[in-house]
Amino acid sequence: MTLVEAGAADWFDVKGTTPKGKQARRLKDGTIGMIVGGAMLGILLLMGILVPLLSPYESDQSVDMPFMPPSSTFLFGSDGLGRDVFLRVFSSVYLDLGVAFLGVIIPFTLGTIIGIGLAMSRSKKLNAVVGSVIDGINAFPLLVLAIALIAILGPGLQSVVIALSLTNWARYARLSRTRAQVVKQQGYIEAAQTLGYSKPRILFKHLVPNVSSETTAYGLSDLILVILLIASLSFLGLGAQPPTPEWGAMISDGRPTLQMAWWPVVFPGLALCWAGVALSFIAEGVTRRERDVKS
Amino acid sequence: MSTATVTESPSEVLVEIRDLVIGIQRTRADRLILVDSADFDIRRGEILGLVGESGSGKTMVCRSLIGTLKRRSATIFGGTIMFDGMDLAKIDERRWRSVRGNRIGYVPQSALTGPNPVMTIGGQLVEAVRCNRNRTERDARKRAMELLDLVHIRRPEVVYDQYPFQLSGGMRQRVMIAAALAQDPDIILADEPTTGLDVTVQAEIMKLLREIRTEFNMSVVLVSHDLALIDDVCDRLVVMHGGTCVEVGSVKEVAQNPKHPYTIALNRARIELATPGTQLITIRGNPPGVGEWPSGCRFSERCEFVQDDCRVGASPPLLEVESNHWSACIHAGELGAASE
Amino acid sequence: MMFGFEKGTTQVSLSMPPADVTDIAADSTQAGPRPQPIWERILRRTGRAVIVAFWVMVVAFMLIRLAPGDPVSAALGGEASPETVAALRTQLGLDVDPITQFWKYLWAFTQGDLGSSLLSGVPVTEMLKTNLPVTLWLIAITVTMTMIVSIPLAVFIALVRIPALPYVFRTLTAIGLALPSFLVALLLLYQFGLIWGIAPIFGYEPGFPANLHYLWLPALVNCVVLVPVLSRVLYSSILDTLDEEFVETGVIRGVKSYRFFWFYVLRPSLAPTVVLLSYMMGVMVGSTVILESIFALPGIGRELVTAVSMRDYPVVQGIILVFGVLVVFLSLLGDIVASLLDPRVKLT
């Protein structure tokens, strides 16, 4: 059936094709996604505790010949220095996720404070200048700014967190400022003012919770980006330094010998994807729920 | 007491709808019937009102007249729609293209989403003018301007280059009426054309539709759930309930001398509504859901005059109880006294 | 690298007119004032982009100076004598107060001077002349490839209508968002370059058809992430469009199929996709930094990484400025395209 032959009416046989019932509803509101994502994250976090605890080795200890393929003793094989890839992959869980968490929570807090502050402030000048700086920072690709800052701070995970804090706050600030301005317009803030509630009370009882519910949803998807960003920076040699077990650094480590041994690259990569997909599913569910609540 | 008041001689019948059945084929064996036995005529130069609650099938009947049932996954399972020697219930897409827009114009429901948002008003009108007819660009533009003038849009040359989002709702609906007029159709279908419009604008649009009818001797089919509106504008009325036509007649007849308990209830609900200080009377129960129709008369469960024989057998057909006045109530003859 | 839905941004920019209930006073026969011509709106949006670009310059200037740590000692290492440090400070113009520095920096910029490399002495503008086209080509090819794949894919899925598809699609998008592009790049390079030998492992040739040979694989990596996200947005916006009444109006009008497809299906649906693409430009440009490093492409991204590891700080400042300005103008371009496609898109 070619385009021209098909009558225009054939273009829109639209209704009645979505699955129905409870299953569909749960698919629709993202519950299933959240459960799957939560389980994936739980497994990863559990392994992150158990594996280093139960393993008789240290993560930077040579336990076998270099480049031994995966076997029953060493499930993920060994890397170029004969270290256990399985152990190293799971030793990185809390480092990777923890640094990413810091890299989100600090800008989140900073940005929310600045954003709400701007929305509350009556000074037009302050709003214009800080608003422009925010626009200016947000124009940059995050990775590019982080790389530039690390040029001065020197490589290392600590620098990564500082770089993220210095740059990523602007996104949260913009989001929470817009949101706070909207909330401020709504009736209940005015009502609270009329009732004579104190400013701090209005701020913390009404404004902050309303603003942060939205930024939290964004923060969750931002966490995925930040995890990938940290791994990317480490991959470029600007983040975690060897021999620290970190997924990006491990992938970078194994890269020259990828042709000979795929496992030191693929397994950390899989772990990284696993974490990302888990959070991605959760974020999708949360966003969906947020949207449902609103509409 | 009923008096046979035939005010105007019945004019030429344009469309004859008989026993129309519309439904959705869900699986090979499972059909969901949305409309069965729609039965009425559309006459030349009249404004015909199609009233009913949501789910009564009025929109489906309307869609069957422009061949876009498929958009709602529905199909015609039986019956005929005779129009100019064609049976619209059976013709294929190719034939439809010569009918739709050409012979039967359509005014969409919502002024907000009716016009194409990415085309200028002029572009859409030219498109409506040029489709199916070979006109030159200049000719089409001239005609588009005429059409804008026809629907009383001032400064058409400004509106011509504007996009729908730059116009007010009333203006947009005027433009849509202009587009429906582009090919001088015999009939214009307007499916709740004043949804979301302000009351004064509503009145303006209705006035415009009436003017057009008089000027071009066109027929207008007005789908609505607003009886007051229908009363003001229409000549004849088709009342639908539960997928069937329950009463057909002139507006005057139906208002003064209703022959179906549903219409009686509708009328009463309206009158009470208009009298301050009285309790609001609504019709008992909810309209029967599609596919959950009771046997016999579909209004039987809500009807205050219900009798045992109402609940058996098939849905009763429309019968001409007086000249040019049809009712689907098997006790129509007894109603006159009861409704006093 | 990574792409995120920036929450709220796509909805905000597609501003719809208010519901009709509000226009009580409006006379339904009277036309409003003549609308602002499109070029005027484009001009205004461009003006805004220039202002943002100015602030991008300010930020590029500030970040390097406000960051904890001293670029000069970082560049020279710990053992440099105080004299050397002082000499470099003077050379870089860091010995005067920041305000003067900023004016100097602005003045130099208007003269087309972005400073010179500490190591080679080559002016940054010279480096850009050879390196920037590589990055621009990579972006252009990525966008083209993404569109070529996403549009038919989204249309196909929207019209075929298999009930489970939306969920498959959503899952794929969630996975696509979580894929690290450096890993995808490594694995594709390994497979296509080393195992199958159908892509070059490194190297570059300037000029259009020739560079395609080197750029298609990195562009493909970007597509792996972009395609699910964009086609999903386009898909749902096509469904929304098909549900709208004007589509029916078009059918009734008997619009020819190809015209119908463009004016009544695709064009009203495309704007959110284009807007999203322009929002994702920033992230995509960021990911070229990694891709250029992996594929050894001589673009400004790889130059940036080299400069960072060499502590060549004037080059770093010059390149991030270019990146920032690039993103500003790419999203300007995206907004303009979106508003040309759909006049409802506000250019502000």
Describe this structure in words.
The complex is a heterotrimer of chains A (295), B (340) and C (348). Chain A is mostly helical and 295 residues long. Chain A has one domain: MetI-like fold, CATH 1.10.3720.10. Chain A has eleven helices and no strands. Chain B has 340 residues and is an alpha/beta fold. Chain B has a single domain (2-103, 183-338), classed as P-loop containing nucleotide triphosphate hydrolases (Rossmann fold). Helix content of chain B is 32%, strand content 23%. Chain B has eleven helices and twelve strands. Chain B has helices at residues 58-64, 93-99, 121-130, 137-150, 156-160, 169-181, 199-216, 227-233, 251-256, 261-274, 332-338, and strands at 13-25, 31-43, 47-51, 75-83, 86-87, 104-107, 187-191, 219-224, 236-241, 244-250, 319-322, 325-327. An eight-stranded mixed beta sheet of chain B has the order 6-7-8-3-9-10-12-11, with helices on both faces. A four-stranded antiparallel beta sheet of chain B has the order 2-1-4-5, covered by helices on one side. Chain B is globular. The N and C termini of chain B lie close together (9 Å). Chain C has a domain at 128-341: MetI-like fold (Orthogonal Bundle). Chain C contains 13 helices and no strands. In chain C, helix 6 (124-160) packs parallel to helix 9 (208-243) and helix 8 (181-195) crosses helix 11 (257-294). The longest helix of chain C has 38 residues, at 257-294. Mean pLDDT of chain C is 80; it is low at 1-26. Chains in contact: A-B, A-C, B-C. At the A-C interface, helix 5, helix 6, helix 7, helix 9 and helix 11 of A face helix 2, helix 7, helix 8, helix 9 and helix 10 of C.
